[in-house]
Design a protein that fits this description.
By secondary structure, the chain is of the alpha/beta class. The chain is built from six helices and twelve strands. It has one domain: Rossmann fold, CATH 3.40.50.1010. Strand 2, helix 3 and strand 3 form a beta-alpha-beta unit.
Length: about 230
C-alpha cells in the first residue's frame, strides 16, 4: 500500500519568538530543535514525509554571535534534509506614540520588518498542492494572515490543511487568539478542526545531537554553547 505524502511548512521566526520568550521566563532552551524528529512523531503509520520547509531570514541587528548561531542552526536543519527558504529584513520608520510634553513635533524610530516570508510560505503551499507533492500539508505558524491561503488550498485542491500552533503554557507564554487560522483548517466532512496545539514538553527528546556528523564521519556543525540538549 502506497503511503500518504505529508509536507510541513515552518514559519521559523513565529516559532522562535515563542521559544525565546519561554527561555527568558523559565531558563529552558529549546532552540536546538530537530523538526524532522518532531514531525516523524506526529505521523500516522500510513504516512511519510514528502518535504519539510523552514522559512527564515537572517539579521545582523543582534550582532555577529547571533548570526553565527542562526547559521549553525540552519546547517543542522539542512543535515536532516530540511529545505531552507530565506527572506530578508528591512528597516522602516515608525511614529512614536508616546506623549512627551517637552518635545514638539513627531518622533520616529527604526523597526525591523521581515520581508517575503509570508509570501514564500503561501506560494510554496499553493505550488506544492498544484504539483500534487503532498496529500496532507501542515502549516507551523500562529499568523492569522495565512487563513486565506489555507482556505484556497481546501477550495481549489480539495485538501484539508492542518495547522500546528506555536507552543505555549498558560501563565508563561500566552497564545493570542488565532480563530481565523484555526477555522480555515476545519474539516467539514469530519466536523472537526485539523489543529495540533504544540506544548513545550512536546519538544523533549527531539533536540539535535551536540555534534552532527555527515555519512563519512566528518563534523558538520556543533551546537552553540548558549544552547542545550533536551
Amino acid at each position: 500500500m502506497e503511503k500518504s505524502k505529508v509536507s510541513f511548512y515552518i514559519d521559523g521566526f513565529n516559532i522562535y519568538h515563542r521559544i525565546n520568550e519561554y527561555q527568558k521566563k523559565t531558563g529552558i532552551c529549546y532552540k536546538w530543535l530537530n523538526y524532522r524528529s518532531l514531525f516523524i512523531s506526529l505521523l500516522k503509520p500510513f504516512e511519510e514525509i514528502s518535504d519539510i520547509y523552514f522559512f527564515t531570514a537572517i539579521t545582523q541587528d543582534f550582532g555577529l554571535d547571533s548570526v553565527q548561531r542562526h547559521n549553525k542552526y540552519i546547517t543542522a536543519l539542512e543535515s536532516q534534509g530540511i529545505k531552507i527558504v530565506k527572506g530578508y529584513f528591512s528597516k522602516k520608520k515608525k511614529l512614536c506614540r508616546v506623549q512627551d510634553c517637552n518635545f514638539k513635533g513627531n518622533k520616529y524610530f527604526d523597526v525591523r520588518e521581515e520581508k517575503q516570508t509570508d509570501v514564500n510560505i503561501s506560494l510554496f503551499l499553493l505550488k506544492d498542492a498544484y504539483l500534487k507533492k503532498y496529500d496532507k500539508c501542515f502549516l507551523v505558524s500562529g499568523d492569522n494572515d495565512f487563513a486565506p491561503v489555507l482556505r484556497t488550498i481546501k477550495d481549489l485542491f480539495n485538501i484539508n490543511p492542518f495547522l500546528i500552533t506555536p507552543p505555549y503554557e498558560y501563565g508563561i507564554v500566552n497564545l493570542k487568539p488565532i480563530k481565523n487560522l484555526k477555522s480555515a483548517c476545519f474539516d467539514r466532512k469530519r466536523q472537526k478542526f485539523n489543529v495540533i496545539n504544540l506544548q513545550f514538553n512536546n519538544f523533549i527528546g527531539h533536540s539535535f545531537s551536540e555534534k552532527i556528523y555527515d555519512a563519512s564521519g566528518k563534523l558538520i556543525v556543533e551546537m552553540p554553547k548558549e544552547y542545550s540538549k533536551f
